[in-house]
Write a structure and sequence with these properties.
Its main location: endoplasmic reticulum. By secondary structure, the chain is mainly beta. It is built from 3 helices and 29 strands. The strands form 7 sheets. A 5-stranded antiparallel beta sheet has the order 2-3-4-5-9, with no helix packed on it. A 4-stranded antiparallel beta sheet has the order 1-29-28-27, with no helix packed on it.
Length: 407
């Protein structure tokens, strides 16, 4: 696991993560309804990176207790300082704000500790609300949205401007809400097969939503009214000439401007075979056909060594990160879908979620990963410097020919 930073190990399994500030990440998880009985708390926490010589660690700087339900999915909006997460069939939205530090009450790290919060007590571990952290963070509840009629919210995504939020439920419903008026969703769309949604994403130009369902289907929707515009699974079938694969995840890839973007999708075989059929990742070209429709086309398809359990795209659109069921990580370049990095044994269990650190010009790209094993890790994205065997053989052959020619 060389080059991977073991940021921290929390006291609960982690199911979701999302970048918040330049050097921080929000994580969420817990023990669910049995948490209070088993002693495994449910929480959403803000982790801040701290570099100590050559090692990077993460310190929890805010903890939000969730009572008897855990956070299964989340998204953040950095400029508006918002975090949204699924808690059972609800979407909870909070505003996370830094306030000026109080003089004379700082610890050695310059952070002011809460004095009235017995975070380590048995009772405090399962209280709903702000239960720990530092005094210069303030969490204010912005909205509680009922987004699922069955069990769980399965996905959540802020619009690019942060004024709207799209939620996906286990009952097969997509709903879009205006955070300024929360009485009812702007629109709802329900899958006629009543199948649960795997993921949802919002296009950089705010005009489109993409969704993937448990039955392997995937769609493009008009973000203004929910109208179904494109069946991505049908286009993929036509392109590949086989129905052997189903969609596992789908996301938009930002381009040089909001009107230029692509799509990336992860696929898994519909049936188990011997030998195993490889999983796939596909890069799509998206082009407008008219004002209400976009034609999408898979242009690059790569085989994967392992089954994809989570997928993320960097905010600059240059990198695509894949977390795998065996705890390994793959990172691809969005240009040509070339493999940039592969790291095995990043976690001891399935990677439940991953996200990139916000991109900065003079900083090495890096990806957060979380897992059932309670750990949070940071993987620097440094291109593998190894050369393919074919190139090495060619170079050796060329050198031998030169030597023989000189003789």
């Amino acid at each position: 696991m060389s080059g991977v930073h073991n940021l921290c190990k929390l006291d609960y399994p982690i199911y979701c993560c999302s970048p918040f500030e330049s050097k921080s990440v929000m994580v969420g998880g817990g023990g669910g309804a049995l948490g209070p009985k088993t002693g495994v708390r449910n929480a959403v926490e803000l982790l801040e990176l701290d570099q100590r010589r050559n090692e990077v660690i993460a310190n929890p700087t805010m903890s939000l207790g969730l009572g008897k339900a855990c956070a299964w999915n989340m998204d953040t909006h950095r400029s508006r300082q918002l975090v949204a997460f699924g808690r059972d069939g609800e979407c909870r939205v909070y505003h996370i704000k830094r306030t000026p530090l109080k003089a004379g009450n700082q610890n050695k790290n310059g952070l002011t500790q809460r004095k009235n919060v017995p975070k380590d007590s048995k009772e405090a571990r399962h209280v709903e609300g702000l239960i720990g952290g530092v005094d210069n963070f303030y969490a204010q509840e912005q909205a509680i949205l009922q987004t699922d009629t069955k069990n769980f919210q399965k996905g959540v995504k802020f619009s690019p401007n942060g004024q709207r939020i799209a939620c996906a439920g286990s009952d097969g419903t997509i709903s879009v809400w205006d955070l300024a008026s929360q009485q009812a969703p702007i629109w709802k769309w329900k899958n006629v097969e009543n199948d649960e949604i795997q993921c949802i994403d919002w296009s950089p130009d705010s005009k489109w939503l993409c969704s993937a369902f448990r039955d392997g289907t995937a769609f493009l929707h008009d973000a203004q009214n929910g109208k179904l515009c494109t069946e991505l699974h049908t286009l993929f079938l036509i392109s590949q000439g086989t129905d052997a694969y189903r969609f596992r995840s789908v996301k938009f890839i930002p381009g040089s401007n909001p009107n230029e973007f692509g799509i990336v999708s992860a696929h898994e075989p519909r049936r188990m075979t011997k030998p195993p059929t490889p999983c796939l990742v596909a890069g799509w070209k998206v082009k407008p056909k008219d004002d209400m429709y976009r034609l999408a086309e898979p242009v690059v398809v790569r085989e994967l060594a392992q089954k994809v359990s989570s997928m993320t795209v960097s905010d600059d659109g240059k990198l695509i990160g894949l977390g795998c069921s065996d705890g390994s990580v793959d990172v691809f370049s969005s240009c040509g879908m070339e493999l940039v990095l592969r790291k095995e044994n990043v976690h001891d269990a399935t990677i439940t979620a991953c996200c990139f650190l916000p991109s900065e010009k003079e900083r090495t790209p890096a990806m957060f990963t979380v897992s059932y094993d309670n750990t949070v890790r940071l993987v620097p994205v440094i291109r593998d410097a190894s050369y393919p065997i074919s190139l090495i053989i060619y170079i050796v052959f060329f050198i031998i020919c030169c030597i023989l020619y000189c003789l």
